[in-house]
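Need tokens for this chain, all 178 residues.
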Amino acid sequence: MAVLCYIIMMNNLAFVSNHQDAKQERDENIMASETQRETLSRVKKRLLRSFPRYNSILKNRKIIDGGDNTAGGRGCTDGNNIWINAGMSEEEQMMVLAHEAKHIERDDCGKGVEDHELWNFVTDAVINDELESEGMSVRNGVKIEGAKEMGAEKLYEVLLKKKKGQLKEDEMTQEIVA
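Here are the structure tokens for all 178 residues:
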């Protein structure tokens, strides 16, 4: 009987210990989430102070820490909410927030195109070109010189033809200029 009580008592201690570990881990995650929310809020305020034009786009949007689950580990949007990897520097978060806001402003999220991956690549290039012309530093993003002037639709059309083998290398320049 004493052995059984000891086993039950040890099992209960293990349960209490596991429960406390889980509670501590949950509390640490909540604290980390609050810190990340505060950081994202600060980043949003900095962006709006520096670039007030984003106010109308970001006014009622949820900015969520998506961690490494965001596209490319940086940021993404569904056209309504914005997920940012709060593990990046605040400068990078600000650029990514502006980038995702531009996707929303352009209403190019989930656009019915043949090659969604190519469309996202092209719109990223155009948006990054626009951000740089606004004075924002774009690091680790898609860059195609002159993308902003060409526009997403034209650039997409040319690159899709190239991808399908319908356009030779020397014809690309003619297509881009036309």
